[in-house]
Specification:
Layout (H helix, E strand, L loop, with lengths): L4 E6 L5 H8 L3 E7 L3 H12 L8 E2 L8 H9 L7 E4 L22 H11 L4 E6 L10 H12 L3 E8 L10 E8 L12 E2 L11 E2 L3 H5 L23 H9 L5 E2 L4 E2 L11 E4 L2 E3 L12 H8 L11 H10 L3 H15 L20
Parallel strand pairs: 1-2, 1-4, 2-3, 4-5, 8-9
Antiparallel strand pairs: 5-7, 6-7, 10-11, 12-13
C-alpha cells in the first residue's frame, strides 16, 4: 500500500480542511501554519485527542516566515511535501465585507500563499476562498495571482463549488483553485448530491443532506459552558427576540438581526464568520433561538468529538471560517483519484448520521 502524501497547511484555522484531507485516508498534514494563538491552540488540542495529525504547528505571521527554512527546520524532512493546502483570510473579498482587496493587509496574504507554493518544489496546491476573489479590483487581483502560479509552471484550474452538492448539510459556496506541476490538469469532482425539489438523476445523485439531519440526536442545550457535547450551550434571548423568532417561517429571515431561520427540509445557508466581537449564526428550525456552537459545527461537518479553544465568539468564528468537511473531503478524494493510487480504507463520514442519509 502506498504511503499517504504529505501536505503543508497554511492559514490552518481550526483545522477543518486538514481534518477533511486526513479523513480521506490519503493525506497527512506534516506542517501547520496559523498566526492566531486561539486557533493554533485548537489545533494542538485536537492533535492531543488524535483528531489531527501530529505535524508541527508554527504559530506565526506567514509574511514573516521563509517557506524553505520553515519547512526544513520544523520537520527535518528529507523530501519536499507533495502539496500545499489552505484558505487565506477572505474578509477582504467577501460580499458582506468592505471588499478592500489588497488595500486591506489581509488581502495581500493570498500572495504569501503563492510564495510558499512557488518556492517549494511541491507537485500540487489547493487554495480556497470566497467567490468574490474572482471579481475584486475588476478581476486584476485574481489575474495577478494566476500569473504567479503559471510562471512557476503550474497548470491551474478553478471553480466555485456548493458544499451541499457534495454531501454537506450547508449550501455554502467556495472558490477552489487547484494547481498541479508535471501532472495532468485537475478535473473538479462531479456533484454527488442534488436539490430534492428537482428531478435527480438517481442513483448517481442523491438528495441534499437536510439541516435537520445534521442537528438530530443532540440533547437540549446546556445552560452554562462547556456543554455536552462541547459548545452545545443555550443562547439566551430577550422575550421580544424569542417572540420574533417564533413567528418566522422556515427559510425566512429575521430582518432585525439578519439571521436565517433554517428550513429543516433543506441544507442550511452558509454561516457568517463575523469578527472577534460577534458572530451571526442561523436560527434553529424548530426552536426560537440561534444555533449553538456545536450545532453550527454539525452544519459544517465537524464530529462532536472535535474540540475548540476560546470564547463562544472565537469558537464561532473558527467554525464559520472552516471549509465544510464533506466538501473538503470530496476535493481530497478527487486529488487522490487523479494523481496517485492509494489502497487505504477511506474514512467514514466525520459525524454519525442516521442510516437514512445516503453516504
Amino acid at each position: 500500500m502506498q504511503s499517504r502524501k504529505s501536505l503543508i497547511s497554511l492559514f490552518s484555522g481550526a483545522g477543518g480542511l486538514d481534518l477533511a484531507f486526513e479523513a480521506s485516508g490519503a493525506f497527512s498534514t506534516q506542517l501547520f501554519v496559523e498566526s492566531e494563538p486561539i486557533f493554533a491552540q485548537t489545533l494542538r488540542i485536537n492533535q492531543l485527542a488524535n483528531s489531527l495529525g501530529k505535524g508541527p504547528i508554527i504559530e506565526n505571521d506567514i509574511s514573516l516566515l521563509d517557506p524553505i527554512e520553515t519547512w526544513t527546520n520544523a520537520t527535518s524532512a528529507r523530501e519536499a511535501p507533495w502539496g500545499i493546502i489552505g484558505g487565506p483570510p477572505c474578509e477582504s473579498f467577501s460580499s458582506i465585507g468592505k471588499q478592500a482587496g489588497r488595500l486591506d493587509r489581509r488581502g495581500k496574504l493570498i500572495f504569501n500563499f503563492a510564495d510558499w507554493v512557488t518556492r517549494l518544489p511541491v507537485r500540487a496546491f489547493m487554495m480556497e476562498n470566497v467567490p468574490g476573489l474572482l471579481s475584486i479590483e475588476g478581476g486584476l487581483l485574481f489575474r495577478e495571482l494566476m500569473e504567479r502560479f503559471e510562471k512557476a509552471n503550474f497548470d491551474v484550474s478553478y471553480s466555485i463549488l456548493r458544499a451541499s452538492d457534495y454531501g454537506a448539510p450547508t449550501m455554502r459556496r467556495r472558490l477552489f483553485i487547484v494547481g498541479v506541476r508535471g501532472l495532468p490538469k485537475f478535473v473538479f469532482p462531479s456533484p454527488s448530491h442534488g436539490d430534492p425539489r428537482k428531478q435527480l438523476s438517481a442513483p448517481l445523485i442523491t438528495p441534499w443532506v437536510r439541516s435537520s439531519i445534521a442537528l438530530s440526536g443532540l440533547p437540549d442545550p446546556a445552560a452554562v459552558q462547556p456543554g455536552e457535547p462541547q459548545g452545545h450551550v443555550l443562547i439566551k434571548h430577550t422575550a421580544e427576540v424569542t417572540k420574533r423568532f417564533n413567528a418566522l417561517k422556515p427559510g425566512a429571515v429575521d430582518r432585525v438581526r439578519k439571521r436565517n431561520r433554517l428550513d429543516p427540509t433543506l441544507p442550511a445557508p452558509g454561516l457568517y464568520a463575523g469578527n472577534m466581537k460577534g458572530i451571526r449564526f442561523h436560527i434553529h428550525p424548530t426552536e426560537p433561538r440561534e444555533l449553538t456552537n456545536r450545532e453550527a459545527a454539525r452544519i459544517q461537518g465537524f464530529p462532536d468529538s472535535y474540540l475548540f479553544n476560546g470564547s463562544r465568539v472565537a469558537v464561532g468564528k473558527q467554525i464559520a471560517n472552516a471549509v465544510p468537511i464533506a466538501l473538503g473531503q470530496a476535493m481530497a478524494l478527487a486529488l487522490q483519484a487523479q494523481y496517485f493510487p492509494y489502497n487505504g480504507k477511506p474514512a467514514l463520514p466525520t459525524y454519525s448520521m442516521p442510516p437514512e442519509v445516503p453516504r
